[in-house]
Design a protein that fits this description.
With 244 residues, the protein is of the alpha/beta class. It has 2 domains: 133 residues, Rossmann fold; 103 residues, LytTr DNA-binding domain (OB fold (Dihydrolipoamide Acetyltransferase, E2P)). Helices cover 34% and strands 31% of the residues. It contains 7 helices and 15 strands. The strands form 4 sheets. A 5-stranded parallel beta sheet has the order 2-1-3-4-5. A 5-stranded antiparallel beta sheet has the order 10-9-8-12-11. The two termini are 40 Å apart.
C-alpha cells in the first residue's frame, strides 16, 4: 500500500504525515508514504510510474500553477483508479470533489481529529479491497486493469506472459519468469500446475494427473511434480469432485 500527500506547504505535509503514522501505529497498519510539493510533480511521477503509483492521495487544492482539482481531473482523465481525499483549507470545493470521484474531503484545522481518523481508516480499507479486486498489467505503454475473479490462467513463452481472462480475452506482457507473477497473485487463489502455467483454482472443473479442464472447456497440461499440490489445493477448497 502506498499513500501520497500532495501539498505545496511542507509544514502541512509533515503535520499530516505524523497524524497518519500515529493512526497507523495504533491500528497496526503498514504502508509507504510519498510526498509531492506540486500537482505537476505528482502527475509527472504518475506518468513515469503508473504501476507503482500511490493507492491513496491526500491532495491539497490551493497550490500555485496547478490546483488540486486540476491535478485530480488529469489523474482521472488518464484512468487513475486509486482513492483521492482532498486535504485543504476551504470548504468551497466540496461539489468539485464529486467530479473526480473523491473519497472524502478534509478541511485543515477544522475537521475533528476523530473524523480524520475515521476517514483515514475507511479509505485504507477501500483501497485494500480494490487492490485485491484488480491487477494492473502494462506492456509497451498499454495498460490493462483486470478483475482478479475474471482471470483463468497465466502462461509464459520466451519471457512473454499472457493473462487469459473473461470471455476469451488476453493480454501479453514481458516478465522474466512466471515466479514473479506467482508472487504477485499470492493468496488470491492461483496455483502453479506446470512450469508454464499458473491457474485460478476456482476456474478448474476437472483435474487428472496430467490435465485440467477449465470452466470454458479449455484443457491445460499438468506437470508431474505439480499434481500432488494441485490435488491437495482442490480438496482444501472443497473442489474434491473435480479431482480424479
Amino acid at each position: 500500500m502506498r499513500i501520497a500527500i500532495c501539498d505545496d506547504r511542507l509544514t502541512d505535509i509533515k503535520k499530516y504525515e505524523e497524524i497518519f503514522q500515529k493512526i497507523a501505529k495504533e491500528h497496526k497498519l503498514h504502508f509507504d508514504m510519498i510526498y509531492y510539493e506540486s500537482g505537476r510533480q505528482m502527475l509527472l511521477d504518475f506518468e513515469m510510474n503508473r504501476k507503482h503509483f500511490a493507492d491513496i492521495i491526500f491532495l491539497d487544492i490551493y497550490m500555485p500553477e496547478f490546483s488540486g482539482i486540476e491535478a485530480a481531473l488529469e489523474l482521472r482523465r488518464y484512468e487513475y483508479s486509486g482513492e483521492i481525499v482532498f486535504l485543504t483549507n476551504s470548504k468551497n470545493h466540496m461539489l468539485d470533489a464529486f467530479d473526480v470521484e473523491a473519497f472524502h474531503y478534509i478541511v485543515k484545522n477544522e475537521t475533528p481529529a476523530h473524523k480524520v481518523e475515521t476517514i483515514f481508516l475507511r479509505v485504507i480499507q477501500k483501497a485494500s479491497e480494490k487492490k485485491q479486486e484488480n491487477i494492473l498489467f502494462t506492456a509497451g505503454g498499454e495498460y490493462r486493469n483486470i478483475a482478479i475473479n475474471s482471470i483463468r490462467y497465466f502462461d509464459i513463452y520466451q519471457k512473454i506472459v499472457t493473462v487469459h481472462y473473461a470471455d476469451h480475452q488476453s493480454f501479453e506482457f514481458y516478465c522474466p519468469s512466471l515466479e514473479k507473477v506467482e508472487k504477485q497473485v499470492e493468496g488470491l487463489g492461483f496455483i502453479r500446475i506446470h512450469r508454464g502455467y499458473l491457474v485460478s483454482l476456482s476456474k478448474i472443473i476437472h483435474c487428472t494427473y496430467d490435465m485440467v479442464l477449465m470452466d470454458n472447456q479449455e484443457e491445460l497440461p499438468v506437470g508431474r511434480k505439480y499434481y500432488p499440490l494441485l490435488k491437495e489445493a482442490l480438496r482444501n477448497t472443497n473442489q474434491t469432485s473435480a479431482v480424479v
